[in-house]
Amino acid sequence: MGLRKCPRCELNYIRDDEKYCNVCKREMKGEPDAEEATMLCIECGENPAVKGSELCAICLREARRQEKLSDLPEDMRAASDLSLTSVALDEIEVPLPADGEIPESELDEIDKELGEDDADELSDEDESEDA
Predict the structure, then answer these.
(1) How far is CA 108 from each of CA 97, 98, 102, rounded to the nearest angstrom?
(2) Cα separation of 90 and 96, whole Å?
(3) DSSP for 8-74?
(4) Residue 3, SS3 per DSSP
């Protein structure tokens, strides 16, 4: 039982009792190659396309979302289109609470989270500064 090259493709080796290699048999039957069967998404070109579609799951979901947005009335569409702009952290204004605005119960929780040792150290420093 020796091996010889396939007479059709001359690439693959077959046994002496076989006519063609498995690759050539599949091609002659018209079956697609396993690599050809998985198509890539035509939109992003990175992910495999969903069966029965030319788009991957992510692009398909985005296309459906865009379709739903186009069906909305004009006034609602403007409200749903939020554009994100880059803002530096120092440009964001954060209102600081005035003295007495933080409820006493929240102050207690903050002290617990920071630890009572930290609070004692702070009070010791305040006393030494006052003297």
Answers:
(1) 16, 17, 10
(2) 14
(3) TTSSSEEETT-SS-HHHHHHHHTPPPHHHHSPBPTTTSSSBPPTTSSS-HHHHHHHHHHHHHHHS-H
(4) strand
Work out the number of other CB atoms within 10 angstroms of the CB of residue 56. Answer: 21
- Mean pLDDT (the chain, rounded): 76
Return the bridge partners of 100, or none: none
What φ, ψ does residue 110 adopt, rounded to 5°?
-65, -45
Cα 89 to Cα 94: distance, rounded to the nearest angstrom: 10
In what helix (H) or strand (E) does residue 76 lie, and over which residues does it extend?
Answer: helix 74-80
Q: What is the pLDDT of residues 18-63, one digit of tens each?
A: 999 998 998 888 876 555 557 788 888 888 888 888 888 899 899 8
Distance of CA 4 to the CA centre of its chain: 49
